[in-house]
Write a structure and sequence with these properties.
With 189 residues, the protein is an alpha/beta fold. The chain is built from seven helices and five strands.
Length: 189
């Protein structure tokens, strides 16, 4: 017998999964797994628990697709993993059900769009680099101004905080720490 398993996620502790949970249970979810964390985080214990609990023939239900993945590529990878395990995906808002032929078609279209988008970004990046070079500019990270680095290190050695010294000289704190490590100079106490 197949079951509907719900997954609800909110980004911060100030938000509540109660609304999503209610909708998922109304849609027939026998159990709802939750996460309270940003979609950017790859570590989602609630989703991992759901995937470990789910069996072939079950359906993972979400209120909206953005609750499941942070990007289209991420979503496609998740749906592929679900399909490999014989688990369907149901999205209530988008009215997508991958257990049907139409739902499967929609995900193939999404995959094609994601591939097209990646190709466009790559082509635009290459065009931008070529245009910058044609104007005599060097794309990428600019070379370090070693005079500023040396001045910042001298300030730090004179007991000025790294934050203050880098602020005065207009360079990043991580830059000064990286250069100090490279030169074998420890962080000040």
């Amino acid at each position: 017998m197949s079951d509907i398993l719900g997954y609800a996620r909110v980004s911060t502790g100030d938000q509540d999964v109660a609304g999503q949970t209610m909708r998922l249970k109304q849609a027939g979810a026998i159990k709802v797994f939750t996460d309270v964390m940003s979609g950017k985080s790859m570590d989602r214990p609630g989703l991992a628990e759901l995937l470990a609990y789910a069996r072939k023939g079950d359906t993972l239900a979400v209120v909206r697709l953005d609750r499941l993945a942070r990007s289209l590529a991420d979503l496609l990878a998740t749906v592929s993993k679900l399909r490999d395990n014989g688990i369907a995906l149901l999205s209530l808002e988008e009215k997508i059900d991958t257990s049907s032929a139409a739902g499967e078609l929609i995900f193939h279209v999404f995959g094609a769009i994601a591939h097209f988008e990646r190709r466009l970004i790559s082509e635009r990046t290459k065009d931008g680099i070529a245009a910058a070079r044609a104007k005599g500019k060097l794309p990428g990270r600019q070379p370090l101004d070693m005079a500023k680095i040396d001045a910042a290190i001298k300030l730090v050695e004179a007991r000025v905080s790294p934050a203050e010294s880098t602020r005065q000289l207009g360079i990043g704190r991580s830059t000064i720490y990286r250069e100090m490590r490279r030169m074998g100079i420890g962080r000040p106490e």
